[in-house]
Amino acid sequence: MDEPLVRWDWIARNWDNGGPTSVKVLLENHIVMAFVPVVAGLLIAIPLGLACARYRWLYQPTVGIMNVVYSLPSLALFSILLSVTGLTQTTVIIPLTLFSLAVLIPAVVDGMRSVPDHVRQSAVAMGFQPYRRLVSVELPIAVPVVLAGLRVAAVSSISLVSVGALIGQGGLGYLFIDGWQRQFYTPIVVGIVLVVALALVADLVIIAAQRLLTPWARRRA
Amino acid sequence: MITFDGVTKRYADGTVAVDDLSLEVPTGAITVFVGPSGCGKTTSLRMINRMIDPSQGRVLLDGKDVTTVDPATLRRGIGYVIQQAGLFPHRRIVDNVATVPLLLGWDKKKARDRAMELLERVGLDPKMARRYPFQLSGGQQQRVGVARALAADPPVLLMDEPFSAVDPIVRASLQEELLRLQSELHKTIVFVTHDIDEAVKLGDTVAVLRVGGKLAQIAAPADLLSGPADDFVREFLGRDRGIRRLGFVPAKDLALDPAPEGVTPEGHGTFNPARDSLRAALDAALLSPDGLAVAVDDDGRVLGVVGQAALVGAARG
Ligand SMILES: Nc1ncnc2c1ncn2[C@@H]1O[C@H](COP(=O)(O)OP(=O)(O)OP(=O)(O)O)[C@@H](O)[C@H]1O
Ligand SMILES: [Mg+2]
Question: Is the residue at A36 inside a domain?
């Protein structure tokens, strides 16, 4: 075969060809389907994680359920959801949200546990009411641990979206199926590069946020 | 004044941490709670600011049962310093110190000015104000802890082993600093320690607790050293009680003999009768080859001498 690994002319023609499978549209869909579950996951994980940190008996059952969910093949979840939400992005977003919860709830709980007891005690002793203590002492101190969890959730969400291609909603995942079916490698390479780049950018953005939000965190050696 | 009136604390698991404790903590003085680990010192302290409520009995602050006061309000009027300092890692030093004033609703500028003033007061370089706690040494963090507790000028200060996590030299300087601050501020301080030397150094009154949360003895340091109530207190006070007690007897009443011809401060141990204790005077005599302690005034002028025999006589009281 003298076919080159990457045919640049294919990229030029398909980057923005106006169709639903132009690389640009796939990339946009991919970002939405990866981003929404992480944000939704964080919004749900904070109250749930706080509840688990507050009421310790909640933690084990919650983590247990989350682990079971995490172990379910995404395909199985898609099939269950298909009858409800059909061949839409929602069918991909819901399982990914559940997956991100499996990472983020423990992250919030660990974050709250990372607040040193003497710091909490001294906040109490200075006359903080519980709500103010949570908002201005405990949550800010939990931020580094939560953001570490968020990095994992974001990167795995970006990589998992591709599976949605099996139901026609996989963002860049479409390129893998397309390339494989046609034995044509260019879309596959483009897909891999973009997914990895997306993951790197997301990771760097979160790291930058971490630097900005928590200048007080001791830099790890 | 803080009054413990028949206070007992029984934890949920049945542990009796404090058992029928009755004592008075006088206003404007340092009262030390001392005793072995687990004797209920922290529990007693925390019943003052309602971090723990008694199972029986009452704790009164200026005659008022603390359990009738809203905990947050009560605590904002009581400074609290603990062993690990408990600083907020995510806030700069100046903001750590301004915490309680801000909780009390002071405006930001006033709270920060106050914080800067306190940092200076506890002997910290203003340069430290912009740092985060992890950028300070343990001793510096403790100073910040003290500054933070004093920020809203509370009449009462609770200190739970505040200096036990730092090395002996830093500890000694923090102790001196506390005594100096106290001579200016006259707070009502309850200080918890398991170190009897620290207790007798800092306390105007020392309360010795025994395991099981019972009060063994409460007395001024000198009286404690000269008259331990029982074997437990005697054992706890340790060796050299006689010598250590002399540290609390002022040297000003010593009868001085005129200095013999040729006796100068050089080559002799000296003491200042206006400031020093009998212990310092005795030490001075032991350091002098001829056994004479030379008394000098603030300007170093020789006031007279005392011999060892006279010192031992004075020491016996
Ligand atoms: N929350 C709790 N539940 C049950 N028992 C407790 C609790 N807190 C303390 N205790 C017990 O009460 C007793 C007194 O504890 P406390 O912390 O007041 O002692 P302490 O004198 O401060 O000791 P240390 O010098 O080690 O700090 C100990 O036997 C301790 O184990
Ligand atoms: Mg204690």
Answer: yes
Angular region, B271: left φ>0, alpha ψ -120 to 50, beta rest: beta
What is residue A220's predicted lDDT score, i.e. its pLDDT? Answer: 47
Give the HSE-up count for residue A201: Cα atoms under 13 Å, Cβ half-sphere.
10
Q: What is the CATH number of the domain that holds A193?
A: 1.10.3720.10
pLDDT given for residue A19 in this prediction: 85
Pick the CATH number of B2-245 from 3.20.20.80, 3.40.50.300, 3.40.630.30, 3.40.50.2300: 3.40.50.300
Tokens representing A58? Answer: 């909640």
> Residue with the nearest Cα to atom 30 of ligand 1?
B38
Most informative mutation of B37, B39, B195 for ligand 1 (most atoms within 8 A of CB): B39
pLDDT digits (tens, 9 = 90+) for B158-189: 999 999 989 999 999 999 999 999 999 999 99
Which of A121, A215, A218 shows the shortest C-beta gap to B86? A121
For chain B, the domains span 2-245, 249-316
- Give alpha helix (H) positions in B35-137: 41-48, 71-76, 93-97, 99-103, 108-121
What are the tens digits of pLDDT across the range A114-132? Answer: 999 999 999 999 999 999 9
Q: How far is CA A3 from CA A6, A8, A187, B171, B237, in A?
A: 8, 12, 14, 77, 91
Average pLDDT over residues B293-311: 91
Q: Name the interface residues of B facing A (CB cutoff 8 Å).
A: 49, 51, 71-76, 78, 80, 82-91, 99-100, 103, 132-134, 148, 158
Query: ipTM, 2 decimals?
Result: 0.85
Which has the closest alpha carbon to A105: A131, A69, A76, A79?
Answer: A69
- Facing B80 at nearest CB: one of A126, A140, A215: A126
Residue range of the domain that includes A77: 8-220
Both tokens of A46, joined, read 């904070």
Does the beta carbon of B14 lie inside 6 Å of ligand 1?
Answer: no
Contacts of B58 (CB under 8 A, 6+ apart): B3, B5, B6, B7, B65, B66, B67
HEC profile for B68-91?
A: HCCHHHHHHCEEEEECCCCCCCCC
Q: Which residues contact B263 (CB under 8 A, 6 or more apart)?
A: B290, B292, B294, B302, B305
